[in-house]
DNA sequence: CTGTTAGCGCGTTCAC
DNA sequence: GTGAACGCGCTAACAG
């Protein structure tokens, strides 16, 4: 391994001078800088960031800890985070918890252990609150993105689950739908809880009755039982049967549509489907689903800005910023007015 | 920050004993181990891996360096890598180069700098060969996945581009297609080069003529000019106009289909489309495209196995393993026999 | 403008 | 079975 001592020797200066040249700290004569830089190039020196972290307690490394690397929402978020990080001189690494609280804990240990300067964190579920304590204990700044952990006093970038739900339900309502099934995410995940809450509130607002028989709960990213749920819903007596499905994320929506397909149910002729979050642009061959799209990129971009602000100001000040990003309604082809039939 | 000194004090032992307990190295009495472990729990101690790396020169950290985090091929690969890494006691972090050679270089610096034990590497393009030298110079083991850099003597997990191309072209040929356009990736990316090569060879094999007018080159993951290309192809005189499109990855294929849609060209009635790599399972509402699927998960899983083998044996031995993973042909709805018309 | 010293947190080596 | 001293690569603080 090449160290500053090696280049110091080669350049005939002291290690300290090498350090100064590398970090642009303190004054160094042009002549010496050239000598040192030449030696650095010659030896292809790369600083050892472990050693640097040890003394500096800073790594210029940020970690994005998310729950599903395969979800386009999060990949876009990651792009945003990366862009902002690089703008500000940081590097971003990703850790994928796979919605698994145990993996999450392990990764947090790694993150603390390796000394990331900060974490952009989208918790797996409500049990993640334990992990928050870890961050605090070890004084590593973090920003919550997309998924809140209520009562946690940190900077946050969240979506507006109520507004999004309202946009979707309003649209369905205007299309004449009165029985709208909710296919929700796990009831221990913030966004799922918030969307269910919103679903109920908006129902009240619209004067619709909330029917427990129309509410289901699925995993956010792998559902083998979508078909099962669809069958149950369709087997309800006609006056209770839903005419529309509200899926609480894109992945669930797709699974529902697939299940409907498999059962030869036409969307939107026989049933309408909407969901939170847009589809992968890469795969929306059919710009099919009517959705509310969230500005995923901005979640990452803004979140990283907040994170770095906090790192730099080293301010565990109590002024915590909470940015709420508005969703946008995208009318496409998976919904249809009921009077058309 | 909590260090072994803190727990040493609390447990009334020497720091060295704490270290032994943590690492299960040397003998320690049961009583002391309990005391120490209790102190560790109480103080929520997490080892400082920078310090550990410094002395040990090992971090139990692997890095997956890929070019497009949004491509389902790579996300599946990442899952496989992660699973194997965890099985074997390593953690995996991701770096996304965005097909950008500059970003790639920066990330490699970070990787070397932070002391990852090894890298699973899918190079951005052929210029990445420079970066290979960096890995070698700094003696960090790496395994090439999906994209080869010819003449590089390391372990590799690659797809069979010839076999895949042949499956696809054979199918089209059997359907009666004789003019098959190639919409390829960048001509400095290994898979694109290999697929073009294969495209030509198989054409010869089938007695088809290769026409330069039918070959185009696009970026692998963002193409604004897909429509432009489609128009050019369709504007060819009828006896030169392609009856099928061979896209060299999923993303390109989707862009082509979108462009065809926009121009009101029906797939597969008016033109057939095939591609390398399956679509995101999450988004294939319409299991639409006929493709050759590669076992993406295995690329990561096997690659990580090779990588860790090499790390553990510390063997820069010359016996380099090269695993070739076979693609699988999936007949779906984007291709049609020409005689049907 | 440049060099020396000390210490970051940990594990290896060598004592006891 | 346990502890003390040293060094990993780097930089802050202090000298000169």
Automatic annotation (TrEMBL), chains A, B:
- CDD domains listed in its UniProt record: HTH_LacI
Keywords from the named record: DNA-binding, Repressor, Transcription, Transcription regulation
> Could you tell me which residue ranges the HTH lacI-type domain spans?
2-56
Tagged with keyword tRNA processing? no
Query: Per its UniProt record, what Pfam families does this chain match?
Result: LacI, Peripla_BP_1
The leader peptide range reads: none
Q: Where does the record place a coiled coil?
A: none
What is the name of the protein in this document? Catabolite control protein A
- Origin organism is Gracilibacillus salitolerans
């Amino acid at each position: 391994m090449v160290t500053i001592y090696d280049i110091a020797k080669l350049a005939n200066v002291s290690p300290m001078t090498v350090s100064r040249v590398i970090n642009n700290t303190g004054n160094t004569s042009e002549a010496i800088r050239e000598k040192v830089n030449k030696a650095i190039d010659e030896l292809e020196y790369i600083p050892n960031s472990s050693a640097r972290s040890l003394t500096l307690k800073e790594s210029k490394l940020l970690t994005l800890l998310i729950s599903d690397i395969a979800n386009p929402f999060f990949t876009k978020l990651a792009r945003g985070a990366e862009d902002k990080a690089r703008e500000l001189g940081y590097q971003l690494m990703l850790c994928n918890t796979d919605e698994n609280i145990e993996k999450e804990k392990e990764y947090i240990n790694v993150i603390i252990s390796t000394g990331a300067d900060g974490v952009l964190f989208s918790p797996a579920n409500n049990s993640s609150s334990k992990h928050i304590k870890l961050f605090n204990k070890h004084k590593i700044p973090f920003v919550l993105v997309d998924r809140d952990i209520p009562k946690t006093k940190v900077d946050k970038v969240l979506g507006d689950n109520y507004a999004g739900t309202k946009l979707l339900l309003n649209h369905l309502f205007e299309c004449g739908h009165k029985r709208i099934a909710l296919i929700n995410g796990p009831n221990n995940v913030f966004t799922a809880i918030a969307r269910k809450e919103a679903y109920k509130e908006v129902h009240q607002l619209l004067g619709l009755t909330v029917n427990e028989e129309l509410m289901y709960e699925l995993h956010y990213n792998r559902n083998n039982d979508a078909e099962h749920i669809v069958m149950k819903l369709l087997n309800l007596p006609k006056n209770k049967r839903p005419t529309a499905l509200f899926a609480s994320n894109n992945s669930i929506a797709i699974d529902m549509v697939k299940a409907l397909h498999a059962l030869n149910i036409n969307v939107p002729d026989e049933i309408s489907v909407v969901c939170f979050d847009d589809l992968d642009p890469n795969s929306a061959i059919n710009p099919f689903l009517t959705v509310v799209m969230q500005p995923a990129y901005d979640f990452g971009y803004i979140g990283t800005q907040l994170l770095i602000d906090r790192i730099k100001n080293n301010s565990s000040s109590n002024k915590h910023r909470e940015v709420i990003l508005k969703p946008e309604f995208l009318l496409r082809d998976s919904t249809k007015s009921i009077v058309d039939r």
